[in-house]
Design brief:
SH3 type barrels; 5-stranded antiparallel beta sheet; 53% helix; 635 residues; single chain; 3-stranded antiparallel beta sheet; alpha+beta; Arc Repressor Mutant, subunit A; Histone Acetyltransferase, Chain A
Length: 635
Amino acid sequence: MARLTKRRQADTKAIQHLWAAIEIIRNQKQIANIDRITKYMSRVHGMHPKETTRQLSLAVKDGLIVETLTVGCKGSKAGIEQEGYWLPGDEIDWETENHDWYCFECHLPGEVLICDLCFRVYHSKCLSDEFRLRDSSSPWQCPVCRSIKKKNTNKQEMGTYLRFIVSRMKERAIDLNKKGKDSKHPMYRRLVHSAVDVPTIQEKVNEGKYRSYEEFKADAQLLLHNTVIFYGADSEQADIARMLYKDTCHELDELQLCKNCFYLSNARPDNWFCYPCIPNHELVWAKMKGFGFWPAKVMQKEDNQVDVRFFGHHHQRAWIPSENIQDITVNIHRLHVKRSMGWKKACDELELHQRFLREGRFWKSKNEDRGEEEAESSISSTSNEQLKVTQEPRAKKGRRNQSVEPKKEVSCPPRSIQVANETGTIFRVFSETSLLTSLSLSEPEPETEAVSSSQEIPTMPQPIEKVSVSTQTKKLSASSPRMLHRSTQTTSDGVCQSMCHDKYTKIFNDFKDRMKSDHKRETERVVREALEKLRSEMEEEKRQAVNKAVANMQGEMDRKCKQVKEKCKEEFVEEIKKLATQHKQLISQTKKKQWCYNCEEEAMYHCCWNTSYCSIKCQQEHWHAEHKRTCRRKR
C-alpha cells in the first residue's frame, strides 16, 4: 500500500556541519551544549542561532544526533546538569532500512512517497502527472522501476555497449574519485542508503547483472544522488557527478538512436563509417553556415532541423536547417562546391559506403555471429560421431589380416581452430585432415558393402603432408582398395572436389586477411591503452610536480614576505626614534629662544618681563596699539 511519510527532516549539509561542531567541541574535552554549538556554527558557517537550534532539534528527531543530560565536571558549571549532544556511534543500534531517506529526484528530505519494489522515494511535487499516486490503497511503483520493467534486450549485446559507456565514465570520474575520498567517513552510511561508485558499476556490467539500459541509467543517477547528499548541491563533487550523469544519458540516447553507429564509432574498425546500418541512414548533401555542401548521413529529424553526421576525417555532428539539405542524387554541379582535399576524401568515403550498401556488406559483431558459430559447431560434432561409428567396424576387419601384412595405424582426429578477434567476431578453420574426413564421410553407405572382408581397410589415412586437397585425395585413392572402388564414380565427384577446394581456399584466405586485420587492431588497441596509461601517469606526475613546486614557491614567498615585513618594521621603528630625537632637539632649541610679541619672529629687543620685539617698528606698533597700557617696565 502506497503512503506518504516523513523519513527525515534535517538538511544533510547542516547535519554534517553539526557533526563537525560536536566532534571539535568533544575533542577539546568540553560538553557539546547548545551554546557552544551555536557559537561554532555562527563563527565558522555563518548560520543564525535560531536556524542552528532548529536543525539540531530536527537532527535529534531523525536519530542523527543523540541528546543526553551531562553533569559538568569543571568551570563555573561544575556539578550542574546540561544538555549535551553526541554523534550516534556503533553502540547505538542502527537497523538497515529498506528505503532511502531523501527524494531521488531533488535529493532533499521531507514527506515522500515510498516505492513498493525498490529503495527509492520521491516527493509528490517531483513526480510528473504520469507517475503520481492515484489511489492510496493500491501499490505504487517509482519511475525507475516502471522503466526497467518496460524494456528487455539481449544481455550480451547490452554488455558490449555498456562497456564502452563505462570506459568513458571512468575517464570522466577521475576527478570525482580524487575529491570523493570522504566516502569512508564513519557517518557516510547514516546519510547514504545505497552506496555506488564507477568501479561497482563496471563490475556489474562485466558480470552481466543489468537487465536493461534504464537500470544502468538508474545507477548513474544514484551516483549523482549520493554525491549531492553527502557533499552538497553546490559542491565541486556534485558538479562533476552532474556532468557524469548528463554524459551517460547522452551516450544512452545515442545508443538508442542507432546501435550500429554507436558500436562502430567506439570500436573503430577500418572504414567503420562506411559500413551500412540496419536500417540504412538517408544520404544527403548538408550545408553548414560558412561552408559548402558536404556528404552526410541523416541521424534524426526534429521539426525543421536535421541531425547529420558528415563523411570525412573527423565525422562531425551538426543540426542543419532543412532548407540547407539536398538529396544525395542531386547533380554535384548544381551545388557549386569547392573541391578541396577534405571534400574529395569525404566523397571517396561516400562512394565506399555506397559500394558496401550495394554489395550488402554489413558489420557483424560477436553477438550476431553467435548463431552461425553454434550451428557450425553442431555440424562438426555430428561429423565426429559419424567418424567414430565408421571407424569401429573397419578396425575389426583390419585385425583379421594383421598376419598377412603388417600395418601402421595413425590416429589423426579431425581438428578445428577457433579464433576470436577483438571485436567479437569468431572464425572456425578446419585442418586438411578434417576436410578429407568430411569428404570421405559424404560418400554413400552402399559402397562400403562392395568391399570384400579379406581386403585390408586402414582406419585412417597416412600422415598428412602440406599439399592441396586434390593431391591428398589422389594419395588416399592410390593407397587404399576402397579408394580404387570409388574411382568408378562419375566425373561429378571431381567437380565437387574442385568446388570444395575453392571453397576452403577462400575460407583460409579470408581467415588470413581477418587475422591480419585483427592483429593490427589488437596492436593499435594495446598501443593506445599503453599511451593512455603513460599519458595519465605523466599527467599525474606533472600535477604532483606542479603542486609541489607551487607549495614550495608559496612557502618561499611567505618566508620572504615575513622577512621583508620584519625588516620594514625594524626600519620604521628606527626612523621613528630618530625623528623623535630630532623633534625633541628642535623643540628644546625653540624653547630657549625669545620671540617677537607682534610678528612672532625671533626677538632681539627686550621690553618687559614677557614682551620682546624683533625690530623698533614692531615695538612702536605694539606700543601704540596696546602695550603702553600694560607695560610693567620701570621708567
